[in-house]
Amino acid sequence: MSRFTTVTRQGRVPATPAQITALVSSTAGFTVINPHLTQDPNLQITPRGVASGVGSAFAFRGKNGKGTQTVTDVTASSVEYAIDMGGMGQSRQRIDIKPDGAESIVTWSMTLDAGHNPLLRLFGLLAGKILGPSVEIGIRNLAAHDWAGKTVHTVATSAH
Predict the structure, then answer these.
(1) For an engineered disulfide with 23, which of 29, 48, 75, 141 has Cβ 3.0 to 4.6 Å away?
(2) Is 65 within 8 Å of 56 (Cβ atoms)?
(3) Residue 122 three-state SS
(4) Which domain holds residue 127?
(5) Is 160 part of any domain?
(6) pTM for the whole thing?
(7) What is the pLDDT of residue 65?
(8) Is the pLDDT at 61 greater than 90, yes or no?
(9) Which residue has the higher pLDDT, 153 or 142?
(10) Sorted alphabetically, which InterPro entries does this protein's record hold (predicted)?
């Protein structure tokens, strides 16, 4: 059983990479498409840090647990997050965006770090079935978002 498990899903979104990056790199924007909020309408989200870009964060508490999500990296084609669920583990979430005509191909992935915890490593075996549907909902929420007439606000990015 591996320490790291990655769950990845891909979909098409009728928006440009700049529009998607601007939306998902802010707490307010991510909340609009948050798959966990779709699954748990009573999910509590408390913004922290800056409004957008690296350091934009929120605390969450709901039926599936509590923790924090923080934007750790933003480029023109991706946004990465650190998720801390305390004793339930740490994970990284990444949204990669590639232009495809007037649309974009979005690849959303979550990488779980089970550390040396044998129970979390067992969870990793089921991660695709447990977390995959949430990632799929996130992509569907992005695709269904009302992109018409949205102003693109640029976000500071870092190069690697």
Answers:
(1) 29
(2) no
(3) helix
(4) 4-144
(5) no
(6) 0.85
(7) 85
(8) yes
(9) 142
(10) Polyketide_cyclase/dehydratase (IPR019587), START-like_dom_sf (IPR023393)
pLDDT 10s digits, 127-139: 667 677 888 999 9
What DSSP character marks residue 160?
-
Domain assignment of residue 70, yes or no: yes
> Given phi > 0 = left and psi -120 to 50 = alpha, else beta, which region is 86?
left
The total number of structural domains in the chain stands at 1
| 118 pLDDT higher than 70 | no
Q: Residue 92's domain is classified under what CATH number?
A: 3.30.530.20
| Best CA proximity match to 68, nearest among 52, 91, 96, 51 | 91
For residue 23, the model assigns a pLDDT of 96
Query: 10 Å Cβ neighbour count for 21?
Result: 26
The DSSP string of 35-104 is HHHHH-TT-EEEEES-SBSTT-EEEEEETTEEEEEEEEEEETTEEEEEEE-GGG-EEEEEEEEEEETTEE
- Is residue 90 domain-resident? yes
Bridge-based pairing of strands 90-100 and 78-84 is antiparallel
